[in-house]
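Support reply, case 0932

Customer input (verbatim):
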Amino acid sequence: MTFTLPPTLMICADDYGLTRGIDQAVLTLLTQGAIQATSCMTTAPRWHSESAPALNEWLQQQQIIQQTSVRAEIGLHFNLTEGFGKQARLSLSQVLKRSYLRAWDVHFLERSLKQQLDAFEDSLQRRPDFIDGHQHVHQFPQIREVLLKVLSQRYPDKKLWLRHTLPPRPTFQLGLKPWLLAALGGYTFRRQLKQQQWPTHASFLGVYNFTGDYAAHFQQWLALAQPHSLIMCHPSSQANPSDGIGAQRVVEYEFLRRLNQDSCSVAHSTQS
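Our regenerated output:
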């Protein structure tokens, strides 16, 4: 099966830092040019000791060999659900319930976001190129207001972009899940980004139930992609037994690393 990738498409691997297999997959795919972005989970126990140093080394190598064809956007994967250390593990349903009841402690949300941003900047000596959320928590009610407030104060020049989750156009070819995600804050968050003039991408793809033929899914996403679309992915070089999507992560990785590299040289794919 042959894939022709639009020149402004961006493919982003989520969850960098979560496991060694994910880190290895992300760095390999970035080197190959098969993906153009990754979002980092700075709350993960391995972030400071392994993930950030490996990413720093990779970034330094790209500077040394001056591979201008290799583009890497490095973002923060804002986490409220994965429990690490003193951070309590919250289910997605718990997060949604708190959000729609507006029952979050605003100070807790602000502190969590600032700590994760600090961990990113302290480890990589750079600001994030973009912000998204683990399980898309960044777009939920109350959380999104805190996010935009903190980011506006911290980065008033708005020289970073934010992820929204709206599919390209009304179609049920993608199934119910993408539209459920769009309804759970996607529409409102996209409107807020536009009103506040935050850069973002045109449309969002890559949502599926982690089953089925990944190549067929990917072909469908490409058929629907607009200029400056974003495709989310979750690759790993090995399956973690405790990860519910561990086996499918390996399927995604094997597919992505076989993509035609000449088709994967992608320009910055965000817009205001």
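We compared this against your earlier run and they match. Two observations from our side: The longest strand covers residues 10-16. The two ends are 34 Å apart (CA to CA). Please reopen the case if you see a mismatch on your end.
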